[in-house]
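Bench notes, afternoon.
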Amino acid sequence: MAQPEFFDALETRPPELREREHMGALAGQVAHAQRHSTAYAEILQGVDASAVTSRAALAQLPVTRKTELLERQKAHRATDVFGGFSTLVRGPAMSRVFASPGPIYEPEGNVRDYWRAGRCLFAAGFRAGDLVHNAFSYHMTPGAFILESGAHAVGCSVFPAGTGQTEQQLQAIAELKPQAYTGTPSFLRILVEKAQESGVDIGSLHKAVVGGEALPPSLRDWFGERGMAVYQSYATADLGLVAYETAAREGLVLDEGVIVEIVRPGTREPVPDGEVGELVVTTLNPAYPLIRFGTGDLSAILPGTCPTGRTAPRIKGWMGRADQTTKVRGMFVHPSQVAAIAQRFPQVRKARLVVSGEMANDRMCLRVETHDTDAALSQQIEGAVRDVTKLRADVELVQPGSLPNDGKVIEDARSYQ
């Protein structure tokens, strides 16, 4: 029996049919959010949901950015940890609750492939009967569960490897012989290099879906030279899958369960196709009905459709951040976290976090203005960085007035080529 070419029939809908069906569902989703989400009852107060049936009408609605979601959650911790955005209540309909850095809490609905990741894995060649070595973190954040649920939707089995314990992971790969990997590209590279050094055979791995970090072409080619076809996914803890790479290697195809706009950063105004702007997503998920959710990520719409036959619009991929928030080793680092570190030390006047190196080899250095040059202070600040961000950073103490006066607290100086 011939293998199907697509995950489902939605992927090959005529573009005009998809747009018509999306716009037809939009009014219902706005009305649902107004009725069942206390946050959107306030954010969309006075909006006539029945009139939101076009992109022009959608563009008139406010953009809700992650910072606002975080602030609403903080303001309602005592009564609703989701800040009024979730329509689910605890019980059989809500299978899990996650915490992302912030902390921001996210619900998981108890439905098949809740995060819609199956389509992404299928496009990367994952098939029923494959064993997937899932190296995303299973601790608090939803990354591992996003990919695991997608693997189950395709018909795969999953080894829940999580992060760390490289030697044990290599042993499991050598003995279980999984066909596929999910996780960050940086950790996959660590596994491959350690296997080469130790002589462990991990040749069963020949396909992968990676996320949480950018995948530079040079690193993708490095994997290809070692027999691994590695594909990018773009998903968030709030939205689930947004876009995914196909065998055409021409940008990322948008998922069928989202409506995507590219807007001028800091505004609600869509930019012309092809122009770089902030990725704003409306999800058709009734459990967590985010309307015009600003991701803070930069991208642009590509012309035409995917050569594989998938007809959804495509984006160029991740092109940086619209704000100063950045991702390091799969974890968001926020300006507010840098401020929280500095506030712990009265002798610190100003701090600037510099992220450098190539992707998959990130380095963080917190440059701190202070008159105190004691090495003990550096060690204390390093501990505070680990405590606040869950990541490691070098600390450089500099004289007051040394840092640029440009308002930045995070500088991303990495190479993405």
